[in-house]
Backbone:
């Protein structure tokens, strides 16, 4: 794993015998050039004037070192990058000499930019449509206050928060001038063009008249707005007319006379709307007799009825026979019904006249033929079909002759049906399929008779599957059998199914669904039955295939108390084989004893989840890579839980299988120590970790090469504050408790004469000493 660690630097001074400690003078700042800039103005060179500056001194900006050039003991030149001055505020400048303490702070001011208006234009508006636009300012010192320095379009106002809203009442081109002021009296002004558009229907409100039943067309006009337009009319428009939504043409064939009032609305592409009320008169159509020859024939002694009809004009109508002979029939003046009982055979010609309520009249010539009396059964010879097991009823009728009539079944029959001579109905419940013939006779009071043969086809009962749509549940891996049933049609039946769960099939002769189910879940499938007459019936069915109980699952390989920075392999197994494949996920969580989490505690494959499978009939879990856990470097509890799925279902037991391990707090661990030298210094780099997330003290021992002596052979440095800062930073949780501590030592004399011997790190749990090899 590659990680970026913070390198801490503490400086200690070590003297060879006979030398003296160097004296360090604290630097000070007298002035800055420049001493202020405007926020967002970019990077610049900062000249720091003062005293006691040493070669290698550096300038800090809010305690962050800047790239610094040493000019003299009284002047430094530092580079300030643009990101440091992006936001208004105050920065604190200090100077630090090599190995020394920082100077007192000098303040640097970052001023806010002047207030300005960002917007350059305003959206156009429409008369009668709500308008809203927001102005935006930047710079200065919020909050801002907006005012209008000129008049706004009628109906609009400018709010102090910079929002222009309202409903425009007049169209035109306007100039809107505004002013914005910040909390420190800074201000900016700007003018914007604003266009308000209008929309108007130009057609007069009284439209040209029309005539019922005759085509009508009227084009409406519009000005203003932004094409294309969309036209609509209210429900009051005359029946038969409609408005074309694209062209505004009112057209159609009116069906009703009268005076009509309705409203028309037009909307343009910007959503602007105009409305106008219209009136139109639809005159009645011409008066016309719509009945056309020939009229129904009549029969002597049989009641006759023929109703005449008319259209147009103005109701009510008055009917009359203006000339000719109707063979003893009369015409009702109100209904136009020609009626009566003819007594004489022949063809009679006459003229029918109709008058409307305005006195307009129209007439037409007609003739009616009256035939001698006869008796006829008028019911068709081929009767509607029936179905076995379903109620059937058919009535019969006769015309001519003299009532009353006497009916009888003269020959034939239909199984299950009976002829009722009084009701003249063949009715009942058919009991057998087939085509059957029979004859009926009718006789009138005058001795006339009529006979007619009839045929009727009785179909078999409708084929249907009678099994309920929800079949009994099955269990994965267990034998299953279910009998399907049907009724109707013509036996024997042939069965088939589509979509059955794996392992199940339907017997085509018996209709039994059987087998051993190979997959769990809820399944939908179709069953079809065909009878010997090739009729078929299909229905959808459902079956639930349940999983058997999952055997006990165990997880092992992780000791209850684990050492840090170790890896343990995990084993997952079932107490007994399961009939379906199981897929699972191991989930790792960590509860630290101190501080935040440890990003190095994870599975060997990376991350805090790992997938595994258990094949059907097996007990051992397998995974793409060996399943192992890395224990990290922080004290706390590692918890691994398992989730299981089979057949797409969650089959995890409650509680979920789990294993726990604890990493105890302990003394710091030193993994490696590296020594580097320069002419007058040496540096010791310590790599290690502390499960307690604490290191309070670092101690170093030294010796000298033969012929040399040291005034100081042991140095102890408190490091609790440094390590506390490192471990309290959430960004460092990714490294657990790992650290790299770099400790430089300044040496007055030859650094190669100083030999580091040991490093000792201490916390409240104990002490660890590391011997440094030379």
Residues:
């Amino acid at each position: 794993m590659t990680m970026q660690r913070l390198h801490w630097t503490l400086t200690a001074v070590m003297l060879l015998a006979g030398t003296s400690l160097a004296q360090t003078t604290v630097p000070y700042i007298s002035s800055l050039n420049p001493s202020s800039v405007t926020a967002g103005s970019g990077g610049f060179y900062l000249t720091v004037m003062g005293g006691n500056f040493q070669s290698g001194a550096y300038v800090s900006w809010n305690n962050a070192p800047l790239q610094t050039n040493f000019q003299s003991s009284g002047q430094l030149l530092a580079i300030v990058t643009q990101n440091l001055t992006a936001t208004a505020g105050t920065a604190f400048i200090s100077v630090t000499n090599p190995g020394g303490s920082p100077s007192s702070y000098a303040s640097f001011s970052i001023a806010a930019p002047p207030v300005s208006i960002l917007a350059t234009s305003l959206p156009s508006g429409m008369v009668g449509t709500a308008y809203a636009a927001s102005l935006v300012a930047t710079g200065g010192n919020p909050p801002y206050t907006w005012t209008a320095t000129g008049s706004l379009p009628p109906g609009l106002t400018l709010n102090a928060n910079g929002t222009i809203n309202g409903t425009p009442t007049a169209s035109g081109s306007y100039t809107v001038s505004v002013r914005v002021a910040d909390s420190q009296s800074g201000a900016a002004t700007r003018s914007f063009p604003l266009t308000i558009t209008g929309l108007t229907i130009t057609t007069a409100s009284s439209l040209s008249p029309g005539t019922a039943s005759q085509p009508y067309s009227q084009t409406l006009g519009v000005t203003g707005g932004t094409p294309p337009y969309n036209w609509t009319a209210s429900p009051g428009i005359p029946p038969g007319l409609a408005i074309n939504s694209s062209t505004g043409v009112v057209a159609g064939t009116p069906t009703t006379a009268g005076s009509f009032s309705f409203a028309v609305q037009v909307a343009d592409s910007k959503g602007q709307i105009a409305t106008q009320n219209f009136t139109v008169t639809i005159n009645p159509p011409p008066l016309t007799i719509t009945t056309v020859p020939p009229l129904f024939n009549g029969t002597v002694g049989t009641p006759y009825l023929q109703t005449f009809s008319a259209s147009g004009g103005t109701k009510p109508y008055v009917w009359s026979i203006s000339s000719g002979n109707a063979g003893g029939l009369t015409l009702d003046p109100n209904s136009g019904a020609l009626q009566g009982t003819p007594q004489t055979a022949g063809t009679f010609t006459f003229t029918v006249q109709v008058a409307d309520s305005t006195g307009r009249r129209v007439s037409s010539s007609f003739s009616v033929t009256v035939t001698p009396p006869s008796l006829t059964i008028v019911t068709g010879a081929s009767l509607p079909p029936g179905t076995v097991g379903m109620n059937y009823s058919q009535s019969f009728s006769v015309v001519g002759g003299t009532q009353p009539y006497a009916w009888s079944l003269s020959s034939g029959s239909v199984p299950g049906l009976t002829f009722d001579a009084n009701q003249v109905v063949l009715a009942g419940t058919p009991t057998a399929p087939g085509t059957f013939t029979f004859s009926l006779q009718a006789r009138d009071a005058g001795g006339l008779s009529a006979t007619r043969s009839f045929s009727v086809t009785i179909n078999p009962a409708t084929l249907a599957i009678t099994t309920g749509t929800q079949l009994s549940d099955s269990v994965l891996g267990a034998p299953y059998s279910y009998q399907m049933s049907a009724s109707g049609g013509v036996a024997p039946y042939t069965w088939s199914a589509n979509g059955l769960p794996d392992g199940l099939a339907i017997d085509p002769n018996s209709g039994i669904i059987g087998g051993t189910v190979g997959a769990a879940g809820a399944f939908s499938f179709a069953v079809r039955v065909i009878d010997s007459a090739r009729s078929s019936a299909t229905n959808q069915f459902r079956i639930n295939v349940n999983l058997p109980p999952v055997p006990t699952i165990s997880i092992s390989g992780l000791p209850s108390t684990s050492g840090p920075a170790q890896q343990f392999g995990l084993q997952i197994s079932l107490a007994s084989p399961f009939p379906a494949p199981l897929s699972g996920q191991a989930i790792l969580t960590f509860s630290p004893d101190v501080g935040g989490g440890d990003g190095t505690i994870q599975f060997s494959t990376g991350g805090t989840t790992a997938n595994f499978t258990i094949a059907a009939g097996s007990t051992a879990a397998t995974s793409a890579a060996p399943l192992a856990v890395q224990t990290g470097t922080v004290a706390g509890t590692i918890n691994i839980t398992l989730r299981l799925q089979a057949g797409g279902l969650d089959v995890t037991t409650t509680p979920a299988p789990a294993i726990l391990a604890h990493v105890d707090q302990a003394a710091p661990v030193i993994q490696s120590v590296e020594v580097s030298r320069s002419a007058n210094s040496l540096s010791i780099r310590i790599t290690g970790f502390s499960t307690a997330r604490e290191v309070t003290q670092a101690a170093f021992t030294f010796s000298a090469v033969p012929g040399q002596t040291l005034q100081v052979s042991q140095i102890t440095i408190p490091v609790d504050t440094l390590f506390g800062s490192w471990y309290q930073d959430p960004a460092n949780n990714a490294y657990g408790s790992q650290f790299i501590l770099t400790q430089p030592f300044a040496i007055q004399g030859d650094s190669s004469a100083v030999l580091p011997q040991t490093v000792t790190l201490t916390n409240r749990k104990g002490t660890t000493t590391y011997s440094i090899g030379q």
Notes: The longest helix spans residues 720-728. The longest strand covers residues 187-197. Residues 116-197 form a domain with the Immunoglobulin-like fold (CATH 2.60.40.10).
